[in-house]
Model the fold of this input.
Amino acid sequence: MLRMTLKRLLMAVPSLVGVVIVTFLLTRALPGDPAAYFAGPAATKEAIEQIRVSLGLDKPLIIQFGRYLGDLARGDLGNSLTTGQPVGKEIRERLPASAELTLLGLVLSISIAVPLGILAATRPGSLIDHACRVLATAGVSLPVFFTGLILVYVFYYLLGWAPAPLGRLDVFYSPPPQVTGFYLIDSAIARDGELFLASLKQLILPAATLGIFSLAPIARMTRASMLAVLASDFVRTARASGLAPYTVIVTYAFRNAMIPVVTTLGMVFSFLLGANVLVEKVFAWPGIGSFAVEALIASDFAPVQGFVLTMAVMYVALNLMIDILYGLIDPRVRIEA
Amino acid sequence: MTDLAPRSLPQSSAAGATFRHARYVISENPVTGVAFGLFVLIVLAAVLGPALVPYDPLASNTDAALKPPSVQHWFGTDQLGRDVFSRVVVAAQLDFFIAVASVALVFVMGGLAGVAAGFFGGWTDRIVGRIADTIMAFPLFVLAMGIVAALGNTVQNIILATAIINFPLYARAARAEANVRREAGFILAARLSGNGELRILLTQILPNIMPIMIVQMSLTMGYAILNAAGLSFIGLGVRPPTAEWGIMVADGAAFMISGEWWIAFFPGAALMTAVFCFNLLGDGLRDIVDPQRRT
Amino acid sequence: MKRRDFLKSAAALAGATMVSAPAVFSPAKAQSRQETLLFVTESGPNNFDIHGVGTNRPGYEVSWNCYDRLMSHGVKTLPDGTASYDRDKFTPELAEEWSTAPMSITFKLRRDATFHDGTPITAKDVKWSFDRAVTVGGFPTFQMKAGSLEKPEQFVAVDDRTFRVDFIRKDKLTMPDLAVIVPAVYHSELVKKHATEKDPWGLEYTKTNIAGGGAYKVRSWQAGSEVVYERNDDWKSGPLPKIRRVIWRIIPSAGNRRALIERGDADLSFDLPNKDFAELKQAGKIAVATTPIGNGIWYLGLNCKNPPFNDVKVRQAVAYAVPYQKIMDAVMYGLANPMFGAESNAASSVAWPQPHGYSTDIAKAKALLAEAGFPNGLETTLSFDLGFAVIGEPICVLVQESLAQIGIKATINKIPGANWRAELLKKELPMIVNFFSGWLDYPEYFFFWCYHGQNAVFNTMSYQDKEMDALIDAARKAAAEGDSAGYDKNVRGFIGKAFDEVPRIPLFQPYLNVAMQKNVSGYRYWFHRQLDYRTLAKG
Done:
């Protein structure tokens, strides 16, 4: 187990190196000029040159890259021009916001997609099967920002059911004392029911937007997996032994069908992290996605580099965790590995 | 002695068999039939649309701005007085082009790299694998944003960005397929006949993985259009005043609150229909091509 | 067996962290809604200090409300009833009174004014702050220069309560320049404590900390999401503000900002798009304030350095081809002052901005273009700032369409905000749609920065003409000396010349739009176009 983990980590290192290099080149290729931005609206060419030298942007790329690596080794991700804060600090503050949103979106999605997939699998070829497929596919056929805007329009503006899209908390609440950065967990730890509800209310619409978008892959995978399992020998034996259909489906078939779904979840989660950026923009969510997008538009290198690196590391860690989880759930994998 | 020669069965052409199989699949699954129908409609709109639209999609007419759907303007007019119906139809051509071009590009890039990796193994496999892993480690949409921001927001760059972020998927799938067929009988036969490795790759393996990839390609077509829409929302999409569904939705979204729903609704509906159609088409094609892999 | 145990224990762990206590509803933590103002904008500050490097416009707002200056402006009422700052009336702020001499002005500071930490404000702090303003470089130094405030030697702390500014030349703009945001008064001891060798003026510290004595203090700041202010109850430089707590939330989506205002969840929404604004005004449920932006014009600029627009005839052809009225209707929804269609290009007064004599005349445009030697038209690019896409993009689309009618094929080029300045500085873009407004509302000020051959960054079209320079310099001299006849002649001269030569084609003077709930009062328009919380009240 340990050896496998180490081996996997080692294999991930070249990818991370690749990510660092590509991001560095890409940000340097951005058409903006941070020196001009920094120098302000009235700067002359000389003033901008001065700032460029002080930012170290006049040196050849190799030297700049070397400095960047040196800073990285010390854990310094640089400073953001648009917010004026150190990137590391911004990411640490904003990551829980994005993670909480993505996780809740995923939970919502699973709670709808899995039953849908099972339902479709137990009645293959029927109207219900087609309806499920149409429903799931519809969710993923609209651009995610549009879904978000429609939800805001209908549920906040027209019906008033959802709270104002003002971010993580209404203005009159202060955030709970920081433990994990997840408002739901922190307010639960602080035993503050009102705050918990307030945080949950703000989370519903953006999480629903993300959830709608990820319905399709999870539903599909569940259906496929269940179909395969339901056709297998041991299920046939269970049925033949006279077990109740519910027991057959849930206790035996479902557990075994979940394995490939878990793998899909990993892919869906990282896919959602990418879709996050648009949802965060729509809902004014103070997460890393909106941070990165603003920085990209402003040709602000450091946050973009920091964001991509963080995401890449998280992706690798997540995949590793899933593989380990997989190994724990399915003993066959462990034996093969 | 009685003649034991087998009676010749009525010959059916390969094309005919495929067609009958397709018809059977569609009848089994009405949704697929609908998807095929929609697909034909979209292609028609893309090809014939620009010639048949009532108004010039780029002509502004500020006196008639923000008018709701009516007999003169079936889908209403937008903030500059342009006819939304004409723009939606003409956009079909651009979006379809974006979808097809992205998919063609990624199939060539990813497919070739993948089969080479699967077929030759060794260093080719490792390098392609590393490249695919590196790309996968990025938050994909942000990578697309970065590429378009760095290279400039033209249609070509949007297509390039979409192709790059889908590369790992195709490379992996192609690699798996090539791997399976590496030691197949017909490959060995081709080798024995004196065909070079590259020739085998191009003429034997690549055509054989096409059917499997077509399913993935259909899904990617839908994704390419959604990607372009997302980029437009942040300002990295096509240039104005080009008519493209994604940018029309992104711009029109601002008018929803004030009640001019048609500016975003119709392009949004068109976009959704197209992506929907491509997704379901993928399912249908999979059923036709490889029923074993139905999901 | 091991697997089952693991799964069981995992489930147990998950269960244990669930909310177990019954919901305990604490008493309302929220402060009284009456004393809190919530307003929303599209973007937030990146720096609290206007002297900082790269401080953005929202940052100016923080500076304005949290720091004091020697003087401020009085208030006047505009024709439509909105309150606005009065350019010609100065009121005491930190300085109780002042006396002018031919080449200097002496201020007497308030006796009881203190910084937020209780330290009394003295003339030493004022001198240190002014020295800082003219030394740090960048925008603040440049702005100080506009009022002939250039050297630290000009600033003298006579004693603890007396501060004198010596003039190096007579300049009508010195007084107004002392009331802009830049010459704010900083707590010199506090900032000096945080200064380093590399950062002698403590710019790093003041970026995220307020070292001032203004009416508000910053209680918390989440970059990119929100700023929370709290009133300085010991503020002596003016009447105590009514709002105790101000919350500034950043909401990037314009549609959501409008929704928030309409549903009453936000008290004030700053700078909504014109269309929303026109509709809210009509609906009547929301109070709206709309004020023409002083000394501000959206224009179509043509590069005078390179062909083809270095030929005045080509520029005039473009001026006749612009679809002015379409822009007014479809882009500004009528909420702007037209800058076109006057009787002629001769200046009608010394008021600025004023309309030029061009109007949409395609035939004339075509003729001029042919005269200039382009009977078959030409190709070029038209660029705009993505940060102002709501206005810039439709203008470009309409202009592009109209230019096509006279044979000019223009490709539209979207340039992201951060790169826009760099591009402008290069002065290579052939055609741009841009906005400029000057804080000091005087025509000679505008022309000095936009038309003078010194080729400042704001002279985006690289226009160089000796005659124009002479007119501008003469006008400034006349203003300094109080020679109104000379002033009149020269101002009319340079306005008329600008219209004839048309290096930039004024399109319209935009309005600043603010939407607020009907129970919000005290809004005042300021030249810096940011919100002043000190005069606002609710209910």
